[in-house]
Amino acid sequence: MKRRYILITAAILIIGIVLASFYDLDISTALYFKDNVFSKIFALLAELSFLFFISVIGGIIFKNSKSFIKNKVLSILFMIGGVIYILVFGYYFSTRFKNSDSLAGFISVFESKTLSLVFSLVIAAASFVFGLLFASKFINDQIKFKKVVAVSFTMVAAFAITVLIKKLSVRPRFVYLMEYEDTSLFQNWWQRFEHAAYYMQLDNVEDRMFESLPSGHSCYACCSIIVLANLDVFNEKLKTKKDLLYVAGLAFALLVVFSRILCGLHYLSDVLISLLITISC
Known about the structure:
This protein is about 70% helix and about 0% strand. The chain has ten helices and no strands. The longest helix is centred in the first third of the chain and has 32 residues.
């Protein structure tokens, strides 16, 4: 992405996070719409878009590592890494598809761990093969290959940081507060909920109910901005449409962000921090 886009977006996000620090609870209360289809659709689209893009990139890396990396050991490691992408993320998203907050969670096939895993791996494998075919046609020099690798590292880093912070922050989701009708459990984004273990044991609550910060789906959607903004790597003609592609990716990300607040699974600060993490990687 162009540096000016990153700086402008980062500045807007930081201002938004500051404002959200005062109005998080009020905004979530005003927008909350339990079990709405809009949120479920965009949760699934965010998951599928990330799985598709990372698997395609995995195929590209696998196909071109031997051609553009002179060190044989490093070349093999990159090829293995390309395959690991589809296995790791294929498995991870098979567990995500089972969650009821995604539209896929309401399809009976996803009630089976095996069928859910098969579905996820089939998507990942098909995207991987697409990447193999795509690579042969468009990735024809080392500079393009390096850009693709850089995009993949950005996506993986953003994903890893998001998951790590989720596990450490222990912030109760707004929907959890609504289930208990107790807004006193609300924690601001910089606070750690010290009594999470107690509430998890109290009613056998899932861990993910205390993983509000940051938003994983917002991270997935923001990665779409990164990919779309770099599509000119594959086709020089797209350089003239770089701004349009950026706006398209941003529009998709904003719809996902709104959907996460609407269903009560994230606060405004959660999604803004997620976006900031992703564009900073």
